[in-house]
Write a sequence for this structure.
């Protein structure tokens, strides 16, 4: 409301609040950071030439002892994507470094800072180009991979959606980023059976985005044609056809695909536990005879 109706009065208010960011009291630092974070959601900070000042204050809060302050600072930096989208590329290196630091936060037991970093990075990526993100692409892709199986639905959703957004920038990395897609493929496909609808939507989005980089026209078309955000999916029929294309294009991956699925035999989610053996069954069904020696029958029969 202040951004909309009291723009000219904001500079002195911002000036008065900046000292509160160094207050000895957590509550004052949280309040000031929250105010700045929300203000960055509006282009008024750009109009009033406050953007750089407020950006500096937010980056300066990244090592704050209070987890909530660090989280809100990242939210503010991410809000630049909606408040001043035309400035994102100019400040790209600083913003991206802040998001990577947030994902690597060592004092974040519930991953709240990492979650904010992933959500904010997803917003910023819409305004960046491939060369802006190339240097950190693989680091982020590898860093977020463990969150795909987090017990927290929001962490699963955010990390998977971010992975889908990152795949748009994988062109120059070619084979290197393709390896990340192949490493995450089984997980993304199995989580189409996730109990949380928002996670399922994120998986559909990520698979549609990853399809073009896989070098298999059949898979790309399947992901585009069958993974609609708000439409149901016959998982058995879909995974059968996916396995057919996988064994035609990547037969040498059979053992890796089976091993990853075996890991999900112990998944806490029953629908994913059920999907994993079905996935393996279709892989074995469609593999050519000359590649069958990859299968470790003892491992497969014991399910370990």
């Amino acid at each position: 409301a202040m951004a909309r109706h009291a723009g000219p009065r904001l500079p002195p208010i911002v000036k008065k609040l900046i000292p509160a960011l160094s207050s000895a009291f957590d509550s004052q630092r949280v309040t000031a950071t929250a105010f700045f974070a929300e203000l960055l959601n509006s282009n008024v900070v750009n109009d009033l030439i406050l953007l750089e000042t407020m950006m500096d204050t937010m980056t300066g809060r990244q090592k704050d002892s209070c987890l909530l302050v660090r989280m809100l600072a990242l939210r503010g930096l991410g809000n630049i994507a909606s408040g001043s989208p035309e400035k994102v590329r100019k400040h790209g290196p600083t913003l991206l470094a802040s998001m990577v630091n947030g994902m690597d936060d060592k004092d974040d037991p519930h991953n709240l800072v990492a979650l904010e970093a992933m959500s904010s990075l997803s917003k910023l990526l819409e305004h960046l180009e491939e060369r802006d993100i190339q240097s950190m692409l693989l680091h982020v892709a590898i860093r977020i991979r463990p969150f795909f199986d987090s017990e927290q639905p929001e962490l699963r959703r955010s990390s998977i959606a971010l992975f889908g957004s990152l795949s748009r920038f994988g062109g120059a990395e070619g084979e290197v980023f393709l390896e990340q897609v192949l490493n995450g493929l089984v997980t993304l496909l199995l989580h189409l059976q996730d109990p949380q609808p928002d996670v399922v939507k994120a998986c559909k989005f990520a698979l549609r985005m990853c399809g073009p980089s896989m070098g298999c026209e059949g898979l790309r078309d399947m992901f585009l044609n069958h993974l609609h955000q708000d439409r149901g999916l016959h998982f058995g029929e879909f995974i059968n056809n996916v396995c057919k294309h996988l064994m035609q294009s990547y037969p040498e991956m059979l053992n890796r695909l089976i091993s990853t699925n075996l890991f999900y035999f112990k998944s806490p989610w029953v629908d994913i536990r059920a999907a994993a053996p079905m996935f393996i069954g279709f892989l074995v069904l469609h593999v050519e005879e000359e590649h069958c020696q990859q299968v470790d029958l003892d491992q497969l029969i014991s399910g370990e």
